[in-house]
Amino acid sequence: MMIDILLADDEDLVRAGLRAVLEAQGDLRVVGEAADGAEAVALARALRPHVVLMDVRMPVLDGLAATRELVRSGVPDGQPPKILVVTTFENDDYVYQALRAGADGFLLKRARAAEVAHAVRLLAAGESLLFPAALRRLAAGRGNPTARDAMARAALTEREAEVLRLVAGGLTNGEIAERLFLGVQTVKTHVSSVLAKLGARDRTQAVIAAYESGFVEPSE
Which of 3, 72, 93, 123 is deepest in the core (most CB within 10 A)? Predict the structure, then answer.
């Protein structure tokens, strides 16, 4: 399957570099470029890419606001694209804010070409890509009554709880399948059940709930 990508960065050179890296892959295609957040939102709605590589600091509308807008309003007749936030430092406060805004993953600007391609493929497949620093920030808010109550109401089965812990640990469906000696489709079914019970939009929201409720700790 060809994965369509939108690049959102206010620096022409950065976009050109990312385009070169991505289009060197046979399954990745850049369908548009945006120089600010407002343009990114408009192009995402018009082009419906699978993944948006979103810089944070952009004029007109920053990447955080653009992410919130895309997650909140979506795109016409379709699901919002996966948002891969591009950041300079793993422990940048913007990372935590982007996670709360609905970002699906994070990519360091110094990432190698293979890492960029891998990150895009992960998100397009429905996985998440989170930094440990962001998870520590989430865990700092554990005991959140709302998150704790939602986790209690979910009444996860033992297997679902096990799968959620592994998802929160950053494992992909394939890695979880290997760890638990299950088929990948079985893992997907468990993940879908967890999302439904938690009322989570995606894996990232489920991870937020897992950490903020105290269900998992960063050390896990």
Answer: 123
Q: What are phi and psi of 105, to 5 degrees?
A: -175, 170
For 75-118, how does the pLDDT look when each residue is reduced to its tens digit (9 = 90+)?
Answer: 777 788 999 999 888 777 788 888 888 899 999 989 999 999 99
In angstroms, the CA 175 to CA 178 distance is 5
- For the entire predicted model, the pTM comes to 0.84
Question: What's the full length of the chain, in residues?
Answer: 220
CATH of domain 140-212: 1.10.10.10
Q: Which residues of 93-108 are buried (b: 16+ CB within 10 A; e: fewer)?
A: ebbbbbbebbbbbbbb
Backbone dihedral region of 133: left (phi > 0), alpha (psi from -120 to 50 degrees) or beta? alpha
Residue type, 160: E
Tokens of 123: 């998100």
* Whether 123 contacts 88, CB under 8 Å: no
Distance CA 80, CA 127 (A): 15
The domain limits of the chain are 3-129, 140-212
User: What are the beta bridge partners of residue 30?
Assistant: 5
Look at strands 3-8 and 51-55 and give their pairing. parallel
How do residues 118-168 score in pLDDT, each as one tens digit?
Answer: 999 999 998 888 877 777 777 666 557 778 888 999 999 999 999 999 998
| β-bridge partners, 185 | none
Task: List the structure tokens of 118.
Answer: 């891998």
Distance between CA atoms of residues 128 and 68, nearest Å: 17
